[in-house]
């Protein structure tokens, strides 16, 4: 069992998006339906594992990162998928990940 915290789109109180880089989005299947409970991994620019969370009941996930190049990979019983994001500063960067059977 993974000990990754459950996530959601609502940012915690006190998060200053003028000082933080937030990567957020939703895990979706090929039909656009949310995928609850997917393991969502954050990989750095060299594709090394950095962090993992469990998508919420509505498929939402969130990471706090630094500007740069990141890969967000989702793994679920409904398939896997990934997307590359390149936040260039602080703020909220929304990117959904679509999963498909392998």
UniProtKB/TrEMBL annotation:
<keyword id="KW-0832">Ubl conjugation</keyword>
<keyword id="KW-1017">Isopeptide bond</keyword>
<dbReference type="InterPro" id="IPR010814">
    <property type="entry name" value="DUF1416"/>
</dbReference>
<feature type="compositionally biased region" description="Polar residues">
    <location>
        <begin position="78"/>
        <end position="87"/>
    </location>
</feature>
<dbReference type="Pfam" id="PF07210">
    <property type="entry name" value="DUF1416"/>
</dbReference>
<feature type="compositionally biased region" description="Basic and acidic residues">
    <location>
        <begin position="93"/>
        <end position="102"/>
    </location>
</feature>
<protein>
    <recommendedName>
        <fullName>DUF1416 domain-containing protein</fullName>
    </recommendedName>
</protein>
<dbReference type="InterPro" id="IPR008969">
    <property type="entry name" value="CarboxyPept-like_regulatory"/>
</dbReference>
<feature type="region of interest" description="Disordered">
    <location>
        <begin position="78"/>
        <end position="102"/>
    </location>
</feature>
């Amino acid at each position: 069992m993974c000990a990754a915290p459950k996530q959601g789109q609502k940012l915690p109180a006190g998060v200053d998006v003028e000082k933080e880089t937030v990567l957020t989005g939703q895990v979706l299947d090929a039909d656009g339906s949310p995928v609850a409970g997917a393991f969502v991994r954050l990989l750095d620019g060299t594709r090394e594992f950095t962090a993992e969370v469990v998508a919420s009941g509505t498929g939402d996930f969130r990471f706090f990162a630094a500007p740069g190049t990141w890969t967000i990979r989702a793994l679920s019983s409904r398939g896997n998928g990934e997307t590359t994001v390149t936040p260039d500063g602080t703020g909220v960067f929304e990117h959904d990940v679509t999963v498909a059977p392998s």
